[in-house]
Amino acid sequence: SGEYKMQVSTYFLAVRLLDRVLSQQAIKRSKFQLLGCACLMIAGKLEEIEAPSIENLIYLSDNGFNTESLINMEMMILKMLNFKVSIHTSYHFATRLALAAHFSEKEKEFMLYLLEISLYDFNLS
Predict the structure, then answer these.
(1) pTM for the whole thing?
(2) What CA–CA distance (Å, rounded) separates 84 from 22?
(3) Residues 6-43: pLDDT tens digits?
(4) Distance (Å, rounded) from C-alpha 62 to C-alpha 84?
(5) What is the largest CA-CA distance in the chain?
(6) For residues 44 and 34, what is the distance between their CA atoms, to the nearest angstrom?
(7) Which of 11, 30, 101, 107 is deepest in the core (most CB within 10 A)?
(8) Measuring CA to CA, which residue among 25, 12, 4, 28 is closest to residue 77?
(9) CA separation (Å) from 26 to 37, 38, 107?
């Protein structure tokens, strides 16, 4: 219900968590949206001041799953990754690099744009 604005770092962390899970276990196509939302929920809890609620994630998925299955998927992910979910991403590295190299705002935004595009190309991830 409404628009959800999250930090870009949340998105990068969610994708990184998703990649880590998929590298360890095959997930049925029918569970992929559930997995993605669970990764977003975990990332949101780490990166956001106000994480997306379970109800909001279910609403955004057009009721593709229920509360219990989302919580179960979150627990599966956390166990699979041994609760090691607070990890650095390319976004964190890029923002630190921009600061250390004294990038202009335009240079920093361009670098982050390229990073975001790389998330959509599996050959670059």
Answers:
(1) 0.82
(2) 15
(3) 888 999 999 999 999 999 999 999 999 999 999 999 99
(4) 30
(5) 47
(6) 15
(7) 11
(8) 25
(9) 17, 16, 38
